Amino acid sequence: MVIRQAKAADAAHLARFINMAADDLPLHFWQKSVGPEGDPWAWGQERAMRDSGSFSYRNAWVAEVEGEAAACLLGYAAEAEPGPIDPDTPAIFVPLLQLEALAPGTWYLNVLASYPAFRSRGLGSALLAHAQEVARAAGHDAISLIAADTHPAALRLYASKGYREVARRAVVKADWVVDAQEWILFVKPLSEAV
User: Domains in the chain and their CATH numbers?
Assistant: First the structure.
């Protein structure tokens, strides 16, 4: 396995990984953005190819196995002083923003996902260790992440690596069809080993 900085050419993989990590919420949002005639995957890929923004290839690392993209890590600095949530924010995103605001100044691990064929091979652990290196190098003393309650293997992994549950918020579904009931915020101080 090799972990490398993502490239714009990885956009299709990044779109799939972020969608897996968030139970199809990105795809749901992208479809609403492009309308019934648009291509939501193309929209997601365009966003991943941007040079700026939180969902940019510049904030991502890809784990390759035998030269094939297998897993992804995407993260960045959380706001040090989060402001109030914009009243025009779609309700579906409000619980996530509320949780993010509870971990200001951390390095926010937005996406950790792997393709099913590559699961249970230690990629998640390796990417969490890499996230710790990146966060430390950027001057952060903690990592935060939000996971849905529908990912039990991921929740066990985070707990085993020292991530502690801080808070939960109910998932707002509206017309998003999902089994998840809660978003869970985890924080790990970087003084602890992975």
Answer: 2-189 (3.40.630.30)
- pLDDT, position 192: 54
The Cα 114–Cα 43 span in angstroms is: 21
Interhelix angle 40-48/25-34, rounded to 10 degrees, is 110
For 126, other C-beta atoms within 10 Å of its C-beta total: 17
Q: Which stretches of the chain drop beneath a pLDDT of 50?
A: 193-194
Cα 178 to Cα 24, 147, 152, distances in angstroms: 8, 14, 15
Q: Quote the CA–CA distance of 97 and 88 in Å, as a whole number.
A: 13
Residue 38: what pLDDT? Answer: 95
State the Cα angle at 170 between 164 and 172, rounded to 5°. 135
pTM of this prediction?
Answer: 0.93
User: Contact 104/141 with Cβ under 8 angstroms?
Assistant: no
